[in-house]
Design brief:
Strand order of the largest sheet: 5-8-11-10-9
Helix content: 40-55%
Shape: globular
Radius of gyration: 28 Å
Distance between the termini: 25 Å
Number of helices: 26
Length: 745
């Protein structure tokens, strides 16, 4: 039996062992009905705190991990509902009077691993998706390490150190960042295969990895991954040029295959990137630019020198699972997951040994990469270059997120160190020679024990039933809701902070978690700026002192408190929930009490769709005139349950003269209308809502459908990229036994 066949079998067994490790790690969540989301923070908010005993008092509020409760779980739940009934949720009607779900990159609805949610509900899907990505990260890192020449045990150590390290574990509750980072080793693997004269498969792997990191949904981490992959390719080209000049192992530069791989990756990811860029341009963030003040803000939130101790001892400043994390005292609003670069103490020691005793030509490159990315995470010169060199990237999030690159670099160095240790142990002769075979397994075992025990005690684990459980008030709202009704739950903005647990009432995005409920507040990093402007106007209606709609601690959130504004009626807000100290369970016509809340009905609420005179939208402040004007200005159009996220079918009554149909959904490019089967343009009314001009005539139907051109263009490019990548993969498989085998230098 050839040594090559033995090596392949060993690699296969090692890959199976790595997958088994991922399944063992995630078994508490997969088998015990747990969800890796910190619902203990939610359990202390109304109405849940009044209907069940809280998990524990989160004395230290983790504003970052809260996003797993407030954003990612509701988004995955909406994805599951839509996919399970056979539709793509391009639009989210449950928040902010509607906004593009596909434009929110972190919805990641076009990311193939997220299609698991077609068959798994969000509670099961979150753990299953995490397990899938840990398997992918393990396998891709292992293959990359083997390709650059690391021994079997050394490659396994690198894979475990990265995949179960601080960045991957820390971002589990916010899965898009972890999902994007998963494909970093795949991009580097594609480049290495290309340089090792396996251009077709290398181009395919590079294109697939680049496209998947874009589809995974977090453009900041995707940009870091693509930046690292691009710099890696340039450095490999520079090294090959020097070799060619020196006459050592000369070969043609694979510029075309590398460029083709990146182009195919961009094409594959276009279906997500184009809608996200479109929404980004129309969001409040889209107008931002790189400024000295913005840089200073990010530097204040960068990794602090005191936090470097956590690279060796992850709980040196405490652990959120114990409620004793001291990060907020070191840096403003510091969150444990965002600032954790731990890869296991055994891995760090091996990395240091590799720098001293290693012979691999890769060690200094990865050492420099680790040092530069750590410096950048601390707000050093590399971070400043990124902030001003790629302005929109600098606005996306904090510098500590560069730890995704640091943890990978140290993980590879750990493999280099173990390789050096293996070679050293092999030199021992006599009776000790048999012990050399234990060095690799023992090093891997120590690393697994270290990272598993830390990861298990750190990650949140909450029973399914405690995540957005039904309560008396949510059941009542679902029973009372009529088609087209919206609600508002009032949380005072002053109660929302970065350090202390907010005293919230049905916090933003809760409506998405309860099917059928729709709210006018919301929480997302990208949403239409026109709706935010309208919300500011609503909040300041009748006020002497202007105020914002976002709490100081979070500019991505809309919290409305002005329940007296007539503009609420214009939006169709029929139910208003506020904190209540009265007797629980009592009710009268138009209001009820439950779960510590007082829920009032607004009988003046408009229908979501109504007809008005055609000259009204063209004269003065149309929203003011509609909200304050006589009911005769509008003719109600019945608003039925659409049964879909992306379209509305309205029954239009007979009209004796031309009218304008106003639908109080947020106006956004991509909406199309047909009146009686005839296409009509959708205009923007009052700079905020949708309007369709309709002529006099008999009763007919109006169909409104959301079909954005950015999605259609992106899907076309995605199909082209997928076909090209599949073709390259098939060609490579057909040629895998060609003469010459693995041509290495």
């Amino acid at each position: 039996m050839s040594s090559r066949l033995l090596s392949r079998r060993a690699d296969l067994w090692a890959a199976c062992a790595l997958v088994a490790l991922a399944l063992v790690f995630w078994s508490p969540w997969l088998l015990r009905g747990q969800v890796p989301v910190p619902a203990d923070q939610q359990s202390w908010m109304l109405p849940w705190v009044a209907s069940q005993e809280p998990v524990r008092d989160p004395a230290q509020w983790d504003a970052l991990w809260w996003d797993g409760v407030a954003q990612f779980y509701p988004w995955r739940l909406q994805l599951h509902r839509s996919l399970s009934r056979g539709e793509w949720p391009l639009w989210n009607p449950a928040q902010l009077c509607g906004y593009p779900f596909v434009g929110n990159g972190q919805s990641a609805m076009l990311y193939p691993p997220n299609w698991l949610y077609a068959v798994l509900d969000a509670r099961r899907g979150l753990a299953a998706s995490a397990a899938v990505h840990f398997c992918l990260a393990l396998l891709l890192t292992f293959l990359y390490a083997r390709t650059i020449g690391l021994a079997l045990w050394a490659a396994m150590v690198s894979a475990v150190a990265f995949s179960f390290g601080g960045f991957m574990i820390g971002w589990v509750p916010l899965p898009t960042l972890m999902n994007c980072a998963t494909w970093l080793p795949g991009g580097l693997l594609g480049i290495e295969l290309t340089f090792r004269r396996r251009a077709p498969v290398g181009t395919a792997v590079l294109g697939l990895s680049a496209g998947m990191t874009l589809l995974a949904g977090h453009l900041q981490i995707a940009a870091y991954v693509l930046l690292a992959v691009g710099l890696y390719a340039l450095l490999r080209l520079a090294v090959q040029v020097s070799r060619n000049h020196a006459g050592r192992c000369p070969q043609r530069l694979p510029c075309l295959p590398l460029a083709a791989g990146l182009v195919l990756g961009v094409a594959l990811g276009a279906a997500q990137v184009l809608p996200t860029l479109e929404l980004g341009q129309q969001s409040p963030r889209g107008a931002g630019t790189a400024t000295a003040e913005g840089l200073q803000f990010h530097i204040e939130g960068a990794l602090k020198p005191a936090e470097l101790l956590t690279l060796l001892l992850p709980d040196a400043l405490g652990n959120p699972a114990r409620g004793d994390y001291l990060g907020a005292t070191v840096a403003r609003g510091a969150a444990y997951g965002e600032r954790c670069g731990y890869v296991g103490l055994p891995a760090v020691l091996l990395a240091l040994f590799g720098l001293v005793a290693g012979k691999s030509r890769w060690r200094w490159g990865f050492a420099v990469a680790a040092a530069l990315t750590l410096w950048a995470a601390m707000g050093g010169l590399p971070a400043r270059l990124l902030y001003f060199g790629i302005p929109k990237l600098g606005l996306a999030g904090g510098f500590p997120r560069l730890l995704c690159l640091y943890t990978f670099a140290v993980a590879v160095l750990a493999g280099v160190g173990l390789q050096a240790l293996l070679r050293l142990s092999e030199r021992v002769s006599g009776s000790l020679s048999g012990l050399a075979r234990l060095v690799g397994p023992v090093a891997l075992l120590l690393l697994v024990l270290d990272l598993f025990t830390w990861g298990w005690r750190t990650l949140p684990s909450v029973p399914w039933a405690r995540l957005y459980p039904d309560t008396a008030v949510t059941r009542k709202l679902q029973q009372l809701r009529q088609p087209g009704d919206r609600m508002l739950a009032v949380t005072e903005r002053g109660h929302w902070g970065l350090v202390q647990r907010p005293d919230a009432v049905l916090p933003p995005n809760s409506a998405t978690a309860y099917e059928g409920l729709e709210s006018i507040d919301g929480y997302d990093s990208l949403f239409p700026a026109r709706y935010r402007s309208f919300a500011v106007r609503l909040e300041n209606e009748g006020r002497q002192t202007p105020t914002d709609v976002a709490p100081l601690a979070n500019g991505n959130m809309i919290l409305l408190e002005n329940t007296a504004s007539p503009l609420l009626s214009l939006l169709g807000v029929r139910w208003i929930a506020t904190r209540d100290g009265g007797q629980v369970g009592t009710s009268e016509d138009g209001w009820f009490r439950a779960d510590g809340l007082l829920v009032r009905e607004n009988p003046q609420a408009f229908s979501r769709a109504f007809l008005t005179d055609p000259e009204l939208p063209g004269k003065g402040d149309v929203l003011q005139r509609l909200a304050y004007g006589s009911p005769s200005l509008r003719q109600i159009v019945p608003f039925g349950d659409p049964g879909t996220c992306n379209r509305y079918d309205l029954a239009l009554p007979a009209r004796d003269r031309s009218k304008v149909l106003i639908v109080t959904n947020t106006a956004y490019p991509g909406w199309h209308a047909w009146v009686g089967g005839v296409p009509m343009p959708v205009m923007t009314v009052g700079e905020t809502f949708q309007g369709i001009a309709v002529n006099a005539g008999p009763a007919c139907r109006v169909l409104l459908a959301f079909v954005p051109s950015t999605v259609l263009s992106g899907l076309f490019l995605m199909l082209l990229g997928s076909a090209a990548i599949a073709g390259l993969g098939a060609f490579s498989l057909a040629q895998r036994r060609r003469a010459g085998g693995d041509a290495r230098c």
